[in-house]
């Protein structure tokens, strides 16, 4: 049994494996989207099928946005472990429901419950990491967390792409992986003592004592980055099918390729953070994403698209650890869960908004120009931060 030691290998492994559930929520079934669209177009002859099928990817994000603030309150008031355990259990039920259901509306209801489960898992797991580790150890482990999410994405995307070629339904079964984590959570995760000992005091931080302007900056950047990021899992399978007649396996491999480079960047975050402050890392993030997306939108071969995906992945891999450690280092312990739930809300609000923003734009200018336009926006932001525009806004260099 766990002796309340966060450095035990089983505890670390459980937290890291639980973190992979978040990227699974959308990435696992992304390669299935074109085949799913073809199936329901034949069944329903509905002109809205394309949009509804893409909502299979983005709808969980909306319910993560709804569920994250609630999860933040629960972990601060009632504790972390129970929420993580329940989230993992319901994750399997909700995620695998798409294998059995025969209508798009019913599948979307299951995806909504999946989003609530993801919110529970992500907020509780990330808050536990912030509780268990401090300083450089926290930065390193959160980089490792993001890397595991990326590597999990590689595994689930390639697996999902491979079996999507047999049936678009099979990738939904991958969500049952969460049930394998249930006994690990019971055995290896312990409730941080400060939760049990926490009593109301006159020193409880008020909302006015929090760095509101800084949090708005962090959450805003996180939302924008995810609007751009989700152009890959939502739109790339369709873009590659039109560009090079890619099959589901090739689409899954392409998305996984970007995720692999994201994981590589996440693993290096601790070293990057040791040399640069949080805000100085932003131009690197925006620059890499900008160059990568510009390449994706301008080229006309599968290999060159992979090049762009790899470059963009390096930038995307730095976003989550940078923002999460930034918030963890800034807010008081007593509101950490609620503050970190803001990161989850921002991440998945951006993912949900991605389809709403990109679909009408891509219908007008095409997916290629949509990617290169997004790349241009990221490059402009990178240049603005590099020039020190943030200093004139009063945010400073928070380290």
Question: Mind explaining what this structure looks like?
Answer:
The protein is built from 17 helices and no strands. The protein has helices spanning 9-27, 33-44, 49-77, 81-96, 104-132, 135-164, 178-188, 193-197, 212-229, 231-244, 248-267, 269-275, 282-298, 302-330, 336-365, 367-386, 389-392. It is mostly helical. Helices cover 78% and strands 0% of the residues. The protein has a single domain, classed as MFS general substrate transporter like domains (Growth Hormone, Chain: A, Up-down Bundle). α6 (135-164) runs antiparallel to α12 and α13 (282-298) packs antiparallel against α16 (367-386).
Biggest sheet statistics: none
Mean pLDDT reading: 85
Helix content: over 70%
Shape: globular
How many structural units, i.e. domains?
Answer: 1
- Give the amount of beta strand, in percent: under 5%
CATH architecture: Up-down Bundle
How many β-strand runs? 0
Low-confidence stretches: 195-208
**Structural class determined from secondary elements:** mainly alpha
Radius of gyration from CA coordinates: 20 Å
- Per CATH, the class reads Mainly Alpha
The CATH H-level homologous superfamily: MFS general substrate transporter like domains
Order of helices and strands: HHHHHHHHHHHHHHHHH
Report, as a whole number of angstroms, the end-to-end distance: 37 Å
Number of helices: 17
Say what the CATH topology is. Answer: Growth Hormone, Chain: A
